[in-house]
Amino acid sequence: MTPAPEETIIDAKHFDFDKAILKGDLSKLTAIADKMKADSLLVADIVGHTDSIGKKSYNQTLGLKRANAVKRWLVSQGIDGKRIITSSKGETSPIASNKSKEGRAKNRRAVITINVTE
To answer: Which pLDDT tens digit goes with each residue over 65-107?
Structure first.
């Protein structure tokens, strides 16, 4: 039986407004890197997200830059980049209202889903 995918959110405390540079406590990413090092069948799907400030096309690109920042960090920890897929949903999948500063901050994130390859 294949285990269910495991999802981790790298949230706004790791991404400033209009930025794709990782910052702060990266313990969640360290745990993912350790898990992927221990099991070569694990692959990561990283999706970048933004708030709704700015043009949709810009936010789509910014979301991808955020996903790629996470990928670069994992690769720097020894994970083969071929095991990591990146994409962006830009501003299209908010998890909070974009009408407040707090809501917009929650929407600035990267979501990492770990799956087992067959």
So the answer is: 999 999 999 999 999 999 999 999 999 999 999 999 999 999 9
Three-state SS annotation for the chain: CCCCCEEEEECHHHCCCCCCCCCCCCHHHHHHHHHHHHCCCEEEEEEEECCCCCCHHHHHHHHHHHHHHHHHHHHHCCCCHHHEEEEEEECCCCCCCCCCHHHHHHHCEEEEEEEECC
90 forms beta bridges with 49
Distance CA 62, CA 104 (A): 14
Q: Please give the CATH number for the structural domain made up of 6-116.
A: 3.30.1330.60
pLDDT tens across 27-41, in order? 999 999 999 999 999
